[in-house]
Amino acid sequence: MTTHTETHSAGGHAGKHEHGGPTTYALTLVALLILTGITIGASYIDLGSGNVVVALAIATIKATLVALFFMHLLWDKPVNRIIAVAGFLFLGIFLMFDLIDLDARNYYLPQNVHRTVVPLVPGTAPAPLTEILPNPDEGPTGATPVPGAEAPAASTAPAPAAAAPASEKK
Amino acid sequence: MSTTPIDLPHGAQGAHDAGHGHGDVDPHFQHHFTTMEQQNDTAKIGMWLFLVTEILLFGGLFVGFGLMQGRYPREFVEAHTHLVRWQGSLNTIVLLFSSFTMVMAVDSAKKNKPSKTVWYLVITIICAFVFLFVKYLEYSHKFEEGWYPAKWYRGVGDAIPGSHGYATFFAFYFMMTGLHGIHIVVGIGLLSWILMRARRGEFSSAYYTPVDLVGLYWHIVDMIWIYLFPLYYLIQ
Predict the structure, then answer these.
(1) Is the pTM of this model over 0.90?
(2) A166 falls in which pLDDT band (50, 70, 90)?
(3) Cβ of residue A11 closer than 8 Å to a chain B Cβ
(4) Angle between helices A22-44 and B209-233 (to 10 degrees)
(5) Assigned domain for B186 exists
(6) Is residue B72 part of a domain?
């Protein structure tokens, strides 16, 4: 009997709890527009590398507002919340490991950068700094395999030739 | 009570409940679901899974953009200044506003106000077209200057050795804003479809899942732009 009365109340109204509503959405829009203004204003202030951090922090606040109120995650079933958070979590792992990689790269990248000392002759353009030369550490190792590299090539070459007649016999 | 092992609240057991006066089965109800609520929840979970793939799709591009910015910091910062700030800002405001009208369309569909739903959807579609028009102005300006993506790049710095940075920047710019623009075009199609169904009066408080799901799609497109805007237009 109790289950029957419950089904009546659950079926009668699609939204059991009144949530959201035009006022909430309008306030969300106002907050989003104010944050947009702040992010545009902050971009005029030179914070060095901090500019990107500030921009991304404000963007994340805005995205959270959109997800919670416009996309109803605040009132939605936990399953959908878990899915959304998991998506961003894995994106965060992706980003984090790439940043670690980028950070480690910077440690040895200057060794690869070609820094030619150009004599200061008027009219000559300075050499670009970003031209990447072969790594000096790899120089000797890169040169030695040349005689050695031909040996595997020579040894592998007869192999297909030997295999070809075998396939022709069939 | 023992005759009904599973509880069927919303009209799924309409045949049994005909005598009670509320037995009409919702025409949108599909027989392989137990209840209408379960059907709606299932659709919504599916939509959220799709949205996560969207986040990861654009996420990969954002990571690539970040790595290339680390590789060509000088060229990227310089190339950033070629983007027009007011165009990006205007498009941000337009998309945020359209997200608001979209959520109002969902809200009015839920509250049995079909004519309001139609109008909110019309405003949302107009906003989408405004966005695309500003994008057209932006792109045509880039093409005039020869700032094509990757190997087609013919703009400033072309003659400088090691100027791959500019070409790489515009490759990412066109890839990311272009993919986002395609999402806007697809969104216009979806919104028009929902608009036609809303005009036929198909949606009510009992069934408005399509409006809800298209709304979620539209919000994720807005959310992606929230990240694209500062990263491309506001970095100096």
Answers:
(1) no
(2) very low
(3) yes
(4) 10
(5) yes
(6) no
